[in-house]
## 1
Amino acid sequence: MIAVITGDVINSRKVNAEIWLPRLKEYFSKITLDTDKWEIYRGDSFQIEVEIEKALEIAICIKALIKSSNQIDVRMAIGLGEKNFKGKKITESNGTAYINSGVSFERIKNNTLILRSPSNDFDAYFNPILKLLSFVSDNWKPVTSETIFYMLTHRELLQKEIAEQLSKDKTTVNKALKRGGYDEIVEIIDLYAKKTQQWWS
């Protein structure tokens, strides 16, 4: 079982790609050393293959990274399933994970994060949660987004250390995390990881 995240950047033409594209490439390179497992195409669309337990955390990190720049956002679909064919590029690979990701991406309407797996029960359990997660994260401001991205990618650090790394006051970091619902989001990430292990381990 693998997870495939398909996404595109909303309002990408409003912001110079040099502001967000190198950061997104750097993040993908840190997630996986295998460059065949991710691709950015058509300028503002992307696809990345990840472990199923990590998929939601990675999707939220992508959201926070993109929204660190003003005026742009991102919508994503997580597809869980199998990989039956490995192409030279991820966009040439195939399997139920790719199909589920592509189909659910086509069906995104008012929210910006959706999931499709081999289990209707799993989808029915998580998609209402993801709608709420979308509602919260769609309203993040750049400062909140940057702080949440840094916290999620440096979970081993204390808030005080994060504040130092970002050259911000600890109170500013704490307020940004509260505004963004960071603690609650981490609970959802951990719940998702636990449920995927229970469902498909």
## 2
Amino acid sequence: MPRAAVVSLLAPLGALAALTSCADAVLLRIDGDRAVPDELDAVCLAIADREPAGGAFGRVYRLEGELASLPQTLAVEPGGASSAEAWVRGYRGGVEVASDRAAVDFGGDVDLRLDRCAPGASGAPAEVDTAGPADARLAASVGRGGALVVALVPGGAAAVVDASGGSGGAALTATDLDLAGALGLLAADLDGDCDDDLVTFTATEVRLHRRDITGFVPPEPLAPLAGVRALAAADVDRDGDTDLVVGGGATLRLLRNDGDGALTADDTAIPAAAATDVTALALGDLDGDGNPDLLVGQGDAAAAPPRALLADASGAGVFALAPAILPELDLLVRGLALGDVDGDGDLDLAVALAAAPSRLYINRAGRLEDQSFVRLPQPAPAAAAVAIADWNGDCAPDLALAAAAGTSLLRGTDSDAFAADAAAAAASDVALVDLDDDGDRDAVLATAGGVTWLRR
């Protein structure tokens, strides 16, 4: 028997009878206050031995049929493991909306929650440490061993940055990572094990770096594609695995996943004339039909209008241009972030712009209405990157705008507007992620001194 008989001794979700008679078995219980399927339609559940050589298991489950409700339970027998870590990621419309993780000591059952609001730390953010390459692009990867941030200088150095000392660690470590000519990156679980892998692109190809416990294995080529500028990932065809959209110049392409991280280009899924100058991509359900739609930021050297493409209602992952969703304005888009800013259950859009104030679009029955002036502090800064997430534990999403003039950290308020929270160093990118695995999010900035960690 392997040290952690996790894989062979796990029962399918909801099917417990075969294992509950074992004295050593514990139950993982997934619960939460999100309605199935309107707010939650799939989960990825994983458990792994704390020992690096031990076993691990991860699997995506659609919440349908016999699984179309919460709570759900899973029985786990320890085998030779003395302790393990368990985590769950919840999805709606192909996009992650909630997550939780917990230690497993096999002394009692374990609850994992996928709630609308997770507890967090309040108070003023403070800088903890800086490490890694300067002026990088960031990708936050969550999985076995907790959260990692990959920092990439396009065409140059890269490193895996982590909080040392375990939960509550007070320093950063930076481990060099060979990404060999990579120009951009994205973290996404392409092989369905609940760990975020790393997708990078060079001048000539898109590559997959599968995640292990502390880093990433050497890359596998995914597609020979030139001119890529942006990536986005979601389960666009609703078959339980994560697909990839790549864009650059006038090209947009969907790469469909076979479930194990092998991607095949579908050149008929996105209209040929959908874009002219792609700079940023985002995927999320705009019209409430349960399928991820595609948002395309444009404008590299010359301003161009952003585009919205709606997925067909059947869930086949075929997109059509929807000109009425976004205002037809020429912009220099540098970043897109989706989040439910006003708490009405649909996705709103924050846009980072070069040489112009950042914008906030509120979703009104599937159309995005510019409400920047009333919901953002004025003048809103120009920015290189944007992130949305609740990182002060008050259940309102917060906003981070990374810019060369300094990073603006904005706090969500009861009026569904954003107020100034704190100012931070100039940055080329920003991520809101639980870097030290203590249960609440941190802010991670790509600054001129390296990757800077802010914690409340």
## 3
Amino acid sequence: MFMGAEPDTEWLRQYPQLQNLEDPAWRQALRHVDIIDVPAGTTVFRPGDPCVNLLFLVEGQVRVYMSGDNGREIVLSHLKGGDLCVFTLTSLLQAADYSAAAVTEQSTRAATLPVMHFRELFACSRGFQDFILHTMAQRMHETLLLLQEIAFEGLEMRLACYILRHTDGIEGAAIELTHQQVASEIGTTREMVSRLLKEMEQRGCVRLKRKRIELVDADRLETLSSGSG
């Protein structure tokens, strides 16, 4: 942890809104930031864990998800360098435990600010307040879009949109995931995903291989994604 010497702020390149923040509270808080490296496959937090740090993701990728009592999962977001987790922010601001889980999908580097210094900084720095509130609003909007998609769009539409989004609509491009992983991403069961993918393959939209979904006909899949298939 940085205490006496001027702290290393190279990680702030990922957070341009904070890079030029010069108020005294922010400069003081930077002295309490530590850098951690976390291996892939590490659980970052789980429901019921206390939130002890604000995590600024610098490198890598983190999957945030919720699990039901039946074991099904739904992925809420994939965080990368420059992102903050909305569940971490709400836990810090409410002094509440986590309500979701997160795991590193790649080797990950993060800058950590202990909760005590986060609260002091949030109380004293208008620039930091603006950054946090803007980030929360953006992340909440993304979460609402996800809920809207789950509540109002058919499963076939969601699956078609997911494939098009993750192949960029390029025929011959592929998603390297199991059917269970895709099911977690769109909030359903592996059996439903497998059945729908088989139907899409029979229509000539995709080609299925082990842990691989290849886009064959983008126009046909686009028809399904619009709900007119």
## 4
Amino acid sequence: MRILITGVAGFIGSTLALRLLERDDEVIGIDNMNDYYDVTLKEARLARFADHPRFTFKHADIVDREAMHAVFSDNGFDAVVNMAAQAGVRYSIENPSAYVDTNLVGFGNILEGCRHGTVEHLVYASSSSVYGANTHLPFTENDNVDHPVSMYAATKKSNELMAHAYAHLYRIPCTGLRFFTVYGPWGRPDMALFKFTKGILEDKAIPVFNHGKHVRDFTYIDDIVEGVVRVIDQPATPSESWTSNAPDPASSNAPYRIYNIGNNQPVELLRYIEALEDCLDKKANMQMLPMQDGDVPATCADIDRLNNSTGFRANTPIEEGIRRFVAWYRNYYGV
């Protein structure tokens, strides 16, 4: 297959590219290499496969309409995987315009590229954040997601709506994946595991919000990528059981699907920190803080739909996933 990955220098995008190249797909990757976090980490991710004969990198921003037109005009893609996004719930409160630009305008450019490029399947990153104020656990794809509590979540819900419109109007198979707290080697420095590891090793206090009373469906990166690959290989199709009298929000009479992709094994944040302490053989100095704006107390993914469709099920325990992350972190930073 010939596959375009946007955000290819990112955490999930780079790991996905490596996996697809290993199975002999051809990968064209684009990234704007912005400085939201350390650019050298992005460059190091790319260096793992930059010289691969079936990989081509294009330095481009999905917000740039002309650049995206050129990417789609110059290449025919069997599948497009949109991982490019402005990430982070908390940063969306500080800089909402970045989310409008990348997550809305940029995603619109991707949809237009797929429309005119006769792409056979668009897979795109949504987020567990879309569940917002919903407290019914586990989260299921047919839950109401009309009450986002951050701009980031609002843009991801918007992506799902935009994709459905294009699936309906132009019959582009579109599959959205609601990721649940992805962690592991080569992760983002703004995520909890990265911050906690750095703080503990440097004998600094680590911020623990909601006084540690968070529960998260932590999902290891290799499990996530396995699920994404399975979805790529199974383009969305119209649902024969869908009815406009009682519409299922996760499917359609258009070629459209929404899936949760998570571990389905929620873990208390304090247990997560305890597992990290065991791997580092060092205790954390925890600074207990109140809940942050835009955050939610608990997440848990019902993954029955994805399992029924693709056979996917995450199987990496947090103890093993954290151990692998710590080994990578120590090697990468020499600590």
